[in-house]
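Shipment paperwork, digital attachment
Item: protein structure file
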Amino acid sequence: MSVIDFANSRMTWFGPLNGSMSRIQLDGMCTLIDDEQGTEDAYYLIAPCHSEHTHLDGQLFTKRNYDFRGIFGETEYTLIRTHWVANPGVSDDPGSENTGGRTPVEARLCKRK
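Attachment content:
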């Protein structure tokens, strides 16, 4: 059996708008097995983060800050953002053209673009 060393495991991705890179620690992993289809899909949970202005001089954290976590698979993902005001049924989609835009999510998993 192989075991993930979560203390030293990170997920890295590159932002399409400004070429920035994000590197966030992994917090969990699960594999969904479909015996009928003979498929296995791995999903990774990132550690909780705060919204921030990483590339600006001055104030680091955004006003009306939120916490977020993400679950990422090979072909789908979802973000879980906890805003200062709850807005059930709405999720921010990093795949949209405007990263800050909100997109209603029905199945809670979005196809990667």
